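User: Need the bound-state model for LTNE7NMQ:
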Amino acid sequence: MSKLRVGILGGTGMVGQRFVSLLENHPWFEVAVIAASPRSSGKTYEEAVGDRWKMTTPMPEAVKNIIVKNVNDVKEVSSQVDFVFSAVDMTKEEIKVIEEAYARTETPVVSNNSAHRWTPDVPMVIPELNPEHLELIPYQRKRLGTEKGFIVVKPNCSIQSYTPALYALKEFGPKLVVATTYQAISGAGKNFAEWPEMLDNVIPFIGGEEEKSEQEPLKIFGKIVDGKLEKAVNPVITTQCIRVPVSDGHTAAIFVNFEKKPAKEEILKAWKDFKGIPQELNLPMAPKQFIQYLEEDNRPQTKLDRNYEGGMGISLGRLREDIVFDYKFVGLSHNTLRGAAGGAVLIAELLTAKNYITAKE
Ligand SMILES: N[C@@H](CC=O)C(=O)O
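Assistant: Bound-state model below.
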């Protein structure tokens, strides 16, 4: 089969660059269009990014001479792609409007943005956890008046270091969770050269992050009722989100109470055995082993473990009983791979495998 033609909206920013890197040599997808702000349009991708290339691997040759298009030229961009990834940098309201405009041109949109995460008929998906939420797509298409176009979003990066671990323990009814996240500076789209204040420093505030970290897992745990996603009531989650001087990798320290307290061995087995459709279908970006548990007391560590399974796996450690809660443990996930562009590419692979994304005639 020939590759599907992909557009990257907001291709010059950090997440956009991550999409460009991940799609180099992708077996199913190829970058056909890169779109960005009017400021960048008309320039080659190499010129538009200039010295702001933040990936550790070089810019792929195949994209250097692509002429960047204006992201607001929805019809023109849509006419040249089968679907788009959205990493646009606009206000929430503008993002809502532009992502729907793309969907209405019969172009599926896989978004890294938060704007549509609470739109009731827009699935917010971690492919291993809640692929059944894609069943919202026909309802959404009906609202949009489309046959093929729709929007699917991925959740915030912060929740990925603990939500899979809790979801894998669903049978024991996780009911109360306290999570403190230690978030890398790439989550703010920055590196140390651009944010020297972060060296030797910790900042105890990330705007809007605690609300997302508490609420978004409940949509993932939720169920579809009458074509709308109804969020779950449990687990009740309270968080503190802290920016730490780490380049990549979000860590979370978790305390949890269950309806039925499992034995430690049951938890370890549930994590080890947990897999989803991406593993069953052997999707190109899917980690073979989604969750790894590290026995050493000093793991997981960002430097050693963030790239586990190409940055798409979750690393857990330090599981032990607690004197206040049933258990506590530590989780780690790569925030710009599993937590951002990698998670979105995996969603697009799942959508393709399930025929929600197909080549335009
Ligand atoms: N908001 C997060 C980025 C994840 O999507 C952060 O600031 O780390």
